[in-house]
Structure formats: structure tokens, C-alpha cells
Amino acid sequence: MKIKPKYWYCLLPLLLWIVAYFGFSFDGLYGQDAYEYLRYTAALRTFLESRTPPGDYFWGVYYPILGSLLSFVLPSSTLSLQLISVGSLLLSGLYLKKIIQRVYKQKNGTVVPLLFFILSPIVLVHSILVMSDMLACCLTILAVYHLLYFIEKVDSKRFLFGSIFVALAVLTRYASIVVLFPFCVMAFYQLLLHRKFKTLIISILIVGLASLPHLAIRSQNSLQFLSHQWLQSWSFTNLFQSHFITIDGEIQYPVINMIYSLFPFFHPVFLVFGLFLFGYFIKKRTFWLSNYQKLFLVSIVMYGLFLGGIPFQNKRFLLLCFPLVIVFLFPLIKQLMTQFKNKKTVVGCIIIIQISIGFYYAKPFYQRNKLEQTIAKELKPFQGNTLYAFDIDIALKGRKLDFNYKSLWKEKLQQFDKNALLLVNEKQLQKQWQGKNPLHNWETLQKQYKLEKINAFEGDFNLYRIGNKK
């Protein structure tokens, strides 16, 4: 049986994971967030097995919940979480195609969501990470699909499905509510307009049931996420800034937040030829907005303003609105693609360019993952000692290394244990942590204690043994 070309695009993410996992030993763990997801996934599995309370957890609960359930049939929690990301991408591509067909009355399938979403460099890379972004993106797409279906057909069943997926999306990543809010308002308006009060009551019960895991886990702090430092420091003026000093240190970004929030429209890791698309739009000026497109645009703008007001930048946060950008730009993308006579050659070139950019974008993720694996392996013989560290200590805990961990970040320390170990990235401290606890503690150690270097790692990490006071 011959597989149609469009299905090869769907199989590529799965192939990418196979190569990354088995060929490069890339387990998807990257940065502190990934290890927190892994930690709580393991805690939930332990709870299901022995009823040991899993403890509190700050972020949306459904990614670790699904990971813990899947870990009963897969060899590890890490693999379970990684495959949730892979599967989320495949399902996202399928329903993004359905949304385009519904919004633009496309009877036949289209390769646009497959070519420009599934094969987008940032989407491909995040589909193999242990992160909740792809699952949240998938649930958001499912919610949008069912809410749009209800808005058009006033089918109560679709409103109920939409309600379920809205709740699941929000309880996977809280920021999903900003993206979904305009669609929820339009669907709610239709619901009241057609007096479907029974459907409303049932949907409230469904949302309540979907919220039970969150309420059970966060019974004491169910709304604590509203006090997150980023929300507390949200400001409209942040849209026009690129330099921030926060609890995460001092960071200078290349562009202001307003431009950063527009990345899904033109940045190569999102839309590989977004700038060419913009030039084509300026030349043709034939891009008229339908009512659906206006709804998508409102959602994109709201989310862009929300992220732009936060004194922080991370491209992965923009994944939630990227599929909406694809839907919004679909007529323009389709017009541009019709300008090429040899479409197969153009599609082939786009795929090659996207994969090439994807490898470049994936490099720091892979390097950090290998660094964490290497440091964990090298530090195994030193287990049982006290270890002073910052940043990398989260990875060591996640990889089950047994140390008496003491953080250089939490507080200013005046005394340090003799013969304890110190793992530190000196260049990062100087660059990002001026006036903060990590740099203060490092300078105290340098001035007051003799330090014996034991090992040096790539990425500027050095392992020291703390000796006598000077």
C-alpha cells in the first residue's frame, strides 16, 4: 500500500523522536521545568501504587497526570512524558487541518497545517521535549475546533466537548485561558442566544469534574498561580523594553517584548518564510478578514499583549497561539503557494530549510541535555557529600543523585561546610546575577575559602571541593 506524501509529514515527528531517543540518547529533559514535571509524574505514580501523598505542585496538573498513567504501560516516566508531546503534535496537526476546513470551507485536505505547523522548527523540537507545551497546544486546538463547531451549528454536544477541552487546556497550562477567552465568549453568547440552559448546566458540571484533580492536589493553594511573580510584575510598559531585572536575574534580550510577541508571524523557527509572506501581502494587498479571522486575530492579539507585558521572553510560550496564526494566515499562505509553478520542488525546499533550522534550534537543547547527563555521570562517585549548587542541582536531583543539596540561590550564605562540593557556572553568575544571592555566595567562597578544582565541564561548569578558610 502506497502512503500518500501528506502522511509522511505526519510520520516525520515520530521518526524524529526515534532518531533522537535511540540514536542520540536524548531523553527530552531540558531545564528546571522538565525535571519538575518528571518529579511530580513519579510522585503521582507512587500515590496510585501506595497512596503516598504526592505533595503540592505549582503548575497545571494534567501533563503529569497523563504521564503517570502512561508510565504504567511504558518503561519510564520520562519516556511517557516525551511520547505525550509526540502524540500531542500529531493530534494537533489533524485538528488544525479540521479547523482550516471548517473556517474556510475547504472540502479537500490541505498540506498547509502539515507543512507549516507540524514541520515548523520550534514545533518539531518541542514535540520531543519533556514539557507541557505541546499537550497544552493540542488541547487548545481541540477546544477551538469544538467551540467553532458549536458557534456555527449550535450543536450542544460540541459545546460540552469544547468545555471539557477548555478545562483540560487551562489545567495543563494556565495561560491557555487567554488564548481561548474570545472563543469561549462567542460560544457562550450563542448558548444564551439559543437558550440552551440545560447544556450550560451540564457544561458547568463537566468543568467541575475536570477541575477535581487540580482542587485535590492544590486544595490549600488552588488559586496560587494567580500570584505568580510574572503576573504580579505584568506591565504595559514591558512591551517596549528588552532589558529586565527580576528574581531570575538581569537579562538583556535582542528585541523588545512587542516584537518578541509577534515572532509566530515572521521568526524562522516558527514560520519559515514569514518575512516573504509579509512582503507578498504588501505587494498584493488582497488579504480581507472574515468574521472567523477577526476572532482568531483578537485571540492572537490578546495573548501577544499578555506575554508582552511579562518581563521575560521564551519562544516556547508562543506555541499556544502559533496554530491560530497558521489558521489566520491560511488564505495568504495559499495565495502565495499558488504563485509557484513547480510546487513539489518548493515544498521539498521548505521541508529541507525547516529541518535545517530545526537542527540549529535544537542544538542548545541537545547540548544542555548531554551536559546534564555527563555531569550526573561524573558526580556519581561523590554521592553522599554536601553539594552547593545552583541551576544544575535540579537536574541532578531529577536524575536521582544522592547529595545533601544546598542552594546558592535561595539565600545569602556566610558559612560553608568544609570538604563539601561546589558546582558552579562562573560566567553565568557574572553575566546574569549581579547583586543577587548566587553571585554573592560565589564571591564569598572565593574571598574566604580555599577552593580545589576537581573537574571542569563543557558549558562553563566547574566542580570544586571547599577547603579551609583563608
Give a verbal description of the structure:
The chain is α/β, with parallel strands linked by helices and 470 residues long. 60% of the residues lie in helices and 8% in strands. The chain is built from 20 helices and 7 strands. The strands form 2 sheets. Strands 4-3-5-7-6 form a 5-stranded mixed sheet. Strands 1-2 form a two-stranded antiparallel sheet. α18 links the parallel β3 and β4. The model has no long low-confidence stretch (mean pLDDT 89).
Alpha-carbon Rg, integer: 24 Å
Helix content estimate:
55-70%
- Total helical elements: 20
Major sheet: 5 strands, mixed
Terminal-residue CA separation: 75 Å
Shape descriptor reads globular
- What value does the average pLDDT take? 89
Order of helices and strands: HHHHHHHHHHHEEHHHHHHEHEEHHEE
Instruction: Show unreliable segments.
Output: none
**Structural class computed from helices and strand pairing:** alpha/beta
Strand order in the largest sheet:
4-3-5-7-6
Strand content: 5-15%
Give the strand tally.
7
Task: Provide a short characterization of the protein structure.
By secondary structure, this protein is α/β, with parallel strands linked by helices. It contains 20 helices and seven strands.
What does the secondary structure layout of this molecule look like, with pairings?
Layout: H1 5-23, H2 31-50, H3 62-70, H4 77-104, H5 112-118, H6 121-126, H7 133-153, H8 156-170, H9 176-193, H10 197-217, H11 229-232, E1 243-246, E2 249-252, H12 257-260, H13 263-266, H14 274-284, H15 291-308, H16 322-337, H17 343-379, E3 386-389, H18 392-398, E4 404-407, E5 421-425, H19 426-432, H20 437-448, E6 449-456, E7 461-469
Parallel strand pairs: 3-4, 3-5
Antiparallel strand pairs: 1-2, 5-7, 6-7
Helix pairs in contact: 1-4, 2-3, 2-18, 3-4, 4-5, 4-7, 4-16, 5-16, 7-8, 7-9, 8-9, 8-10, 9-15, 15-16
